[in-house]
TrEMBL record:
This is Alpha/beta hydrolase. Residues 1-75 are annotated as: Disordered. Gene3D superfamilies: alpha/beta hydrolase. One of its GO terms (molecular function) is hydrolase activity. SUPFAM superfamilies: alpha/beta-Hydrolases. Residues 7-28 have a biased composition (Low complexity). The keyword Hydrolase applies. InterPro entries: AB_hydrolase_fold (IPR029058). Keywords: Hydrolase. It comes from Bradyrhizobium denitrificans.
């Protein structure tokens, strides 16, 4: 596919931590009642906290990215929407596929974009939402090594209806037990369009992460945490049409050395060279592509490209089972059976709740995946 290609719409868009001897996984990590914590469409976006609910007994042991430190001061679970100037949209630059203006259609004073499918989407409806879904689990501790998960959603999605409620991405972060926070920028609003917006621009991903560090520090209650979040390692998860902002963030984002892992969920629709380049240059990180028949031929092509560069590729059920930690340098491709639908892939791929599974396996890796903060000398410039 071409550089600016969009994810095609299929005909029908269609823990894994070892249990302690005396506790089941669900006892150790009781699933929070996320649906009850979030505001409905008629409510404001005021934060809902766990103080509204009956306390639950603490888990016996948390999966973490280092030995447990003394507990941080009590803080509630935070899930909210934050406006960010550096988020994907609004975007008034060029489309790198054609080097022509992204907003290439006008009607009076109104401007819009003609998508890959030929449909016109208007800037004021589809490309004007600069909000980012931010989730900080109550047990997150900025004093300990941690990771920022950046989730790029697919076509036809909104942050509240899909990423938060249907795909349960914040819940998967919390349920993993890993010392992690979530950033999920709104891409094209509820549209069959994968455009990357500001993430197309050189340094765009770095600007996004730098601005996010300020908001994360505020949400954790300590302005001094800005430096911590500005150097914290990153795992990018791209679902379906999220392949495009993922690929461009890796290629021109300006901080690819901070990215410790990439997870593509039925998302290899193109940009193969960008994914192969990142894998080749960052052999201490990990790369996972799980796919259905819709993207199988692109995944096969990417595997062949990597093997031609001398990179070992693992295929099959290598992620299944609790005894399958995710090791540094792993390059894994997993084809799922036809029972797995594209639409439900963020919650059901090779396993139920695949984002949770990846984070749990990342934390259990021996030797550990490098999570120390980058130094100025090792970061991209």
């Amino acid at each position: 596919m071409t550089q600016g290609s969009q994810a095609p719409e299929p005909a029908a868009l269609a823990a894994n931590a070892a249990p302690a001897s005396e506790f089941t996984f669900e006892q150790r990590f009781p699933p929070p009642e996320f649906r009850d914590r979030f505001p409905t469409a008629s409510e404001s976006l005021a934060l809902h906290t766990q103080a509204e609910f009956a306390p639950k007994p603490p888990p016996a042991q948390l999966v973490s990215l280092e030995p447990q430190a003394p507990a941080p001061p009590q803080r509630d679970n935070v899930t909210t929407l934050v406006s960010m100037a550096s988020s994907a949209f609004p975007y008034f630059g060029n489309n790198p596929a054609s080097d022509a203006p992204f907003l290439n259609v006008s009607s009076g004073d109104r401007r819009g974009h003609r998508s890959f499918s030929g449909r016109v989407y208007w800037q004021d409806q589809t490309y004007n939402d600069n909000r980012v879904l931010v989730h900080v689990p109550e047990r997150f501790d900025a004093r300990k090594p941690g990771v920022i998960v950046v989730f790029f959603h697919g076509n036809g999605a909104t942050l509240e209806r899909d990423v938060r409620d249907r795909q349960m991405v914040p819940q998967q972060i919390t349920d993993s037990g890993v010392n992690a926070v979530l950033l999920a920028p709104q891409m094209a609003v509820d549209a069959a369009d994968s455009s990357a917006g500001k993430f197309w621009q050189p340094g765009g991903f770095k600007r996004f992460m730098d601005e996010a560090a300020v908001h994360l520090a505020r949400l954790t209650g300590d302005p001094a945490n800005v430096k911590t979040f500005a150097s914290m390692p990153i795992v990018i998860v791209g679902y379906s049409g999220g392949f495009l902002p993922t690929a461009w963030s890796l290629e021109v984002g300006g901080i690819s050395d901070r990215v410790r892992g990439v997870v593509l969920l039925d998302a290899v629709y193109g940009q193969l060279d960008k994914f192969a380049n990142w894998i080749e240059r960052h052999r201490s990180g990990f790369f996972i592509s799980s796919y259905t028949r819709y993207t199988a031929h692109h995944d096969q092509e990417l595997m062949a490209m990597l093997r031609s560069r001398g990179i070992d590729v693992l295929e099959g059920d290598v992620l299944k089972g609790q005894d399958r930690p995710l090791r540094p340098g792993s390059v894994v491709f997993v084809e799922t059976d036809e029972a797995m639908t594209h639409r439900d892939y963020v919650t059901q791929a090779w396993t139920r709740l695949p984002i949770k599974d990846v984070l749990t396996k990342m934390a259990a890796a021996q030797p550990p995946i490098r999570i120390a903060a980058s130094t100025p000398e090792t970061r991209d410039r």
